[in-house]
Amino acid sequence: MSLLTDYEVAALLLSLKVASVAVCCSLPFGVMVAWILARCRFPGKSLLDGIVHLPLVLPPVVVGYLLLVSMGRSGWLGSWLYHYLGISFSFSWRGAALAAAVVAFPLMVRAIRQSFEAVDTRLEQAARTLGAGRLKVFFTISLPLTAPGIVSGMVLAFARCLGEFGSTITFVSNIPGETRTIPLAMYSFIETPGAEAQAARLCVIAIVISLVSLVASQWLGRRVQLRASGQC
Amino acid sequence: MLTIDINKQLGDTLLQVTAELPTYGVSAIFGRSGAGKTSLVNILGGLATPDSGRVQLGERVLFDASRRINLRPEQRGTGFVFQDARLFPHYSVSGNLNYGRPRRGRKTSFDTVVELLGLEKLLPRYPAALSGGEKQRVAIGRALLTEPELLLMDEPLASLDLPRKKELLPYLQRMAEELKLPIVYVSHSLDEILQLADHMLVLDSGKMVLNGALEQVWDSPLLRPWQSVQEQSSLLSARVVETLPSYEMSRLDLTQDISLWVNKLLPQGESIRARIHSNQVSVCRERPQSTSIRNVLPVTLSAIETAETGQYVSLKLDLAGKVLWANITRWALDELQLVVGEPLFAQIKGVSLTSSDLAAA
């Protein structure tokens, strides 16, 4: 690791940790919401659709502010969580992961939803005539056939989480080693006179991990696509 | 007994069926497209819900609107074969076959089904690498392996081209003969039905027109509109009593002293369903002497049916209590001055045995 300074390594590892946790923890909800939007009909569906997509169009500062108000330690939900479960999001990396997850959620849901809509419901019907209940049909037919969409949704969300800046700095501030991810670290260097070189180094790191994750996702996506269509 | 008594509104047409189908052999549901065949079979399988009525299989009530019973598809114990095979693309052939198999499913039944449908070589392959006929065979095997009480087949041959149909039909025939499993078979092809079915239900724009044993339904004048002149034919069941190996011909006895020769060497004692196309039958007043035709049978003219158009008329002939139809030209009818009730001789040029006769459907 002699290539990178300790400071850069810390920011890089934190970024990866925040993005991974955000993607993994929001995935079950993303799949659930995508399935509901793709398959169910109920009054208020367009409202749910709108709420899910809101973080995509709201300024990230607004998302951060809303998180601060609701999930901060004195926020209405945050205080309850802290009081009863001892979970606190304020000014910790968990808060950064939450902010990243909220902002990336619509991207994940959109990709998975499209993939659910593309699954042939006649295959699900056939599975039911073969004696499979709804749950078995979901886990053995719908979900595996949606796998390519789930992978691309995760990759999109992961990339969005790595780049998250506005809502993170609003919600959990810019604390070195705790919430200072690569974008925040870069922002700090740019604000500091004479640290242009360090900012440029971080810029290169950001480009490299983005490229690596793009290539990895393409490779993974191809494999999953082949598996789902039974060609390997 | 499979008891059906249902009503369902389908767009403009009302599907209304009250019928009992036997729980043995193959029962065909026949009708033109849009007649409601698929909707009916979907109702039997639980994929569609009727507006009212009931469906009962033996002692088990599958649907009863008045008692609010509607078993889900997975609870009905009915296997379903769709027109498009609907194999799961992410499972191999053996994965597809095992998908609905009961956990304590018998190993023997797996081997039997694989052997019956000729699937041994396909087991490790994926659906993407199968031909249409192979896919459909796997789909049939998959449905059989759920060990159903009733097998529903919705036009399993309709999406296949003629060579594939010819390839798949013998498997279906073997299956119908060897498995003691009642099958409901939807088709718009009378030829397929002739090959396979024992019982037939005819639907026309949602209404049941006919329901009964195949040979009875076949002779009903109500079925005539569905048969083109080339398709009009009579069905006769008989047993093989004599064979002439040197000429490769077999004799079927229709009654004690009337018999029919067919151009095929058949095992003695076997029961055969012979189909005689009306265009292959001609009549004459005197028994023709020194004719090349082997089948000259004494008959009585029991009815003359003239079509409004076309050059042909249909003669309904009584052949020792069985019905034989003959098509002759209107010109011949006028010249011979045929009278209902008069004795005639029917000359039969060709007899097809339903197992070897899949005409272009």
From TrEMBL, chain A:
InterPro entries: MetI-like, MetI-like_sf, ModB_ABC. Pfam families: BPD_transp_1. PROSITE patterns: ABC_TM1. The keyword Cell membrane applies. It is found in: Cell inner membrane; Cell membrane. One of its GO terms (molecular function) is molybdate ion transmembrane transporter activity. The keyword Transcription regulation does not apply. It comes from the Bacteria. Signal peptide: none annotated. The chain crosses the membrane at residues 12-38, 50-71, 91-112, 137-159, 199-220. It is a multi-pass membrane protein. Keywords: Cell inner membrane, Cell membrane, Membrane, Molybdenum, Transmembrane, Transmembrane helix, Transport. Residues 12-213 form the ABC transmembrane type-1 domain. One of its GO terms (cellular component) is plasma membrane. Belongs to the binding-protein-dependent transport system permease family. CysTW subfamily. Part of the binding-protein-dependent transport system for molybdenum; probably responsible for the translocation of the substrate across the membrane. This is Molybdenum transport system permease. The gene is modB.
UniProtKB/TrEMBL annotation, chain B:
Its EC number is 3.6.3.29. Residues 1-230 form the ABC transporter domain. Pfam families: ABC_tran, TOBE. It comes from the Bacteria. The keyword Flavoprotein does not apply. The keyword Transport applies. Residues 290-357 form the Mop domain. GO terms for cellular component: membrane. GO terms for molecular function: ABC-type transporter activity; ATP binding; ATP hydrolysis activity; molybdate ion transmembrane transporter activity. Keywords: ATP-binding, Cell inner membrane, Cell membrane, Hydrolase, Membrane, Molybdenum, Nucleotide-binding, Translocase, Transport. This is Molybdate transporter ATP-binding protein. The lineage of its organism: Bacteria, Pseudomonadati, Pseudomonadota, Gammaproteobacteria, Alteromonadales. The gene is modC.
